[in-house]
UniProtKB/TrEMBL annotation:
Entry's transmembrane regions: 20-53, 73-91, 111-131, 138-163, 169-194, 232-253, 259-279, 300-324, 330-350, 362-384, 396-416
Organism of provenance: Cryomorpha ignava
GO cellular component: a single term: plasma membrane
Primary location class: membrane
Matches recorded under Pfam families: MatE
Name of the featured protein: Multidrug-efflux transporter
Keyword hit for Cell inner membrane: no
Superkingdom classification of source: Bacteria
Membrane topology value: Multi-pass membrane protein
Keywords, alphabetical: Antiport, Cell membrane, Ion transport, Membrane, Transmembrane, Transmembrane helix, Transport
CDD domains assigned: MATE_like_12
Amino acid sequence: MANILQTMYQLIDTFWLGRLGANAVAAVSLSFPILFLILALGGGLTLAGTVLVSQYKGAGNQKMVDYSSSQTVFVVFFISIFLAALGFFAAGPMMTLVGAGPEIYADSVTYFQVSSLGFVFLFLFFVFQSLMRGIGNVIFPMFIVLGTVFLNLLLDPLFIFGYGPIPGYGVAGAAVASIFTQALSALVGILVLFRGKKGIRIHFSQMKFDFKWTKRLFELGLPAGLDQSTRAGAMTVMVMLVTGFGSEMVAAYGVGARILSLVIIPALGFSIATTSLVGQNIGAKQLKRAEKIGNLSSGIAFFGLTAVGIIFFIFAEGIIAFFVPDDPEVIKGGALFIKIMAPSFGLLGVQQVMNGVFNGAGFTKASMMLSVFSLWIIRFPLAFMLSHKTGLGPAGIYWSFPISNLIAAATGFAYYKMGYWKKRLKPHDPEWIAG
């Protein structure tokens, strides 16, 4: 639920920006994949925090739970500053790289730059969420997200259109609203961690450079970050394919991709839950129970998200029209995207659960390899061939999604059943568990 609510930020932005027209939606649609790419580079480290904290929790080592949390906050804070500066100053070249047309270039650059300023707040809250999930405390972060989503619902139209003394910032206004809500959520999360009332207590005294621990964080986090950045990079390249078909098709793809994100987020929720539970059971040396969790999560993700896909298939036109009400071409293209993609939502869920199992076991390289295979070896080449070498046009890009989902889910599940991930475990090393 917390991840679904997190997605509401983008959906609320799309709803209000759709009132400005297709170009406004297209400008943000171009920015979104690259923003996700930069966030993914640091986001892997927050996942590493989840893995370490969950395994120490399972081993009953509260001292290392607190120390790992302090170190994760410390490292991610400085990385977020670097990525914020990188995003701000590289906005123009990156928008040019993905093919932003003259009608949307200025808005896409401004939106990207303003969004980059909020990276520090966004990353700090992501760390808080990840650490809480590692010990199984998921309710409190969800309520924080719920409150900020409602606040964003009010601030979006205020900063986009303006009211009274507050000027309208247009497309950039959506990013300004997000920064306000991200700062509030980060402040609450970090204060909770310092107070130590929710199962984790961080300390300033433990926030100093520890080469051995930072090395371990990067060993786990770098493959996880590359996994997510691989996904974001693939999204960016797919947008570059779409731009060749015009701004209306970019807008149609952008709205469809936002709908896809509404499904990817709960799939990631299953993945993160699986990571936490598998990690805790591995820390407690309960390997059979860890595998049972993988089986159960796969079934829930497959059948649950397949049902969601059927609903989206039936109401595809109405969903797209809700976001872009006055553009028949965008509605037609976006609805086609959803109808082609939606039946494979369950397969996407299985793939994400497999990533969760591998991550919980500390085998984050397997998740990265599965993503590279799915997106770069299967999806992108297939999208290019179907859209440019057949008569399908943009629909060829859409068809690459369900095909790659099927192949990736089958490959990941087969590898999981081989059990190789259980032979790679490090928690049985007493020095590693004790820190």
